[in-house]
Amino acid sequence: MDNRSEKKYIVINEIKSQGEKWIQIIKEYYKVEKVLISNIKDNSIICFMGTGSSYNNSLMAEFAYNKLMNKQSYSINSSEYLFNPDVFIKPGYENKKVFAISRTGETTDTLLALKMLKKLNIFLISLTTFPNSNIARNSNLSIVFEDLREESITSNRVVSSIALFLLCLFYKLCGKESLIEKINDYTETFFSNYNQYCNYISSIVKTMDFNKFVFLGPGPFYSIAREAALKVREMSITNTEFWPTLEFRQGYSTNIEEDNLIIAYLSKTNIDFQVKACMELEKAGAKILVISDKTKLESYKKFYDYILEANLGLQDELLCQVYYQLFGQLIGYYQALKKNIDPSNPKNLDYIVKI
Q: Are the CB atoms for 222 and 319 separated by under 8 Å?
């Protein structure tokens, strides 16, 4: 397909709009910072709840919060909460604050979970894009991002923007608010290369008919791998997997084939282990796409077929949880184009997920 035919799919415009939305989300954060922090006391136990991409948001938030703070937070899949609520939150626990994440504010299982939590006198903070939604109205504090609303069923900019919003909150809570001031510069630098990212990923997808995409990431990038796998599966109806990088070596790699593309998000922590894992997978016959940010790889024998460098030099690689989401979205988009599938309207999905 040529560029003219691509424009009929609204999702690519929403993906591209993330650059300006990320800059805007910083302003939105500052508007609600005081009221938000005033409702999170020092001894509060923080939980994050959602399903689908919103659950991936919860996993991103849990890791980032636990990394930055000297206490533990928890992510909860609201679908699973309905089956075993006492496993996740014991009755009688005081000072719990739950962030309920839902793009539409109408996701049935999250709404049902909130109604159960209200009976336990849990303080509920919702993050949605619709102010009059049931989840917003059933929360103690509702934060609404109306400008993030998407027309496509596939959610992209909402997920990345909520990840950024919560990171801003965590930086403030841990005394690293100076990092927030640098984010807009990072964003402008990152999106100045947007067309290059598109062209490169498009060229990779066109290289061969990939039957499966496997996303790997350690630490803060596991949730990114999980979200990328969901996006590619939704948009292009293609088989995907997601794993912590080294966990994938524990027998799960036995079905690797030559028509598989492994996407490895590299962390600067214990990079030797990650490189070795990629070498093993390349030896098994898979193609390897490495995604990193100014990571020094010159001392290693080449272990990849393709490489994407963000070249941001981030002071804290937790911010990659925001920026790296773009690459999974673009892989899904260009794979969908190749298969002549509308990436804005995934098969068997609706804008609002109901039970």
A: no
Digit-coded pLDDT (tens) for 58-111: 999 999 999 999 999 999 999 999 999 999 887 766 678 999 999 999 999 999
Give me the helix-helix angle, 18-38 and 157-173, nearest 10°: 40
Q: What percent of the chain has pLDDT over 90?
A: 84
Sorted by where each begins, the domain ranges of the chain are 3-184, 186-338
**Residue 24 token pair:** 């805007």
Closest CA to 264 of 281, 284, 250: 281
> Domain 3-184 is of which CATH architecture?
3-Layer(aba) Sandwich (3.40)
CATH number of the domain at 186-338, please?
Answer: 3.40.50.10490
Residue 220 neighbours by CB under 8 Å, 6+ apart: 60, 63, 64, 67, 267, 317, 318, 320, 321
Cβ atoms within 10 A of the Cβ of 294, count? 11
Beta bridge partners of 159: none
Among 115, 89, 97, 120, residue whose Cα is nearest residue 39: 97
DSSP letters spanning 157-218? HHHHHHHHHHHHHHHHHTT-GGGHHHHHHHHHHHHTTHHHHHHHHHHHHHHS--SEEEEE--
Q: How far does CA 92 lie from the centroid of its chain?
A: 32
> Among candidates 119, 112, 65, 120, which has minimal Cα distance to 94?
120
Please count the other Cβ atoms lying within 10 Å of the Cβ belonging to residue 138: 18
On the 0-12 / 13-18 / 19+ scale of CB atoms within 10 A, 146 is exposed
Nearest CA-CA partner of 224 in 176, 263, 258? 263
Token duo for residue 255:
């079905």
Only one residue has tokens 């399903």, namely 51
Q: What is the pTM of this model?
A: 0.95
As given in the structure block, the two tokens for residue 128 are 């949605």
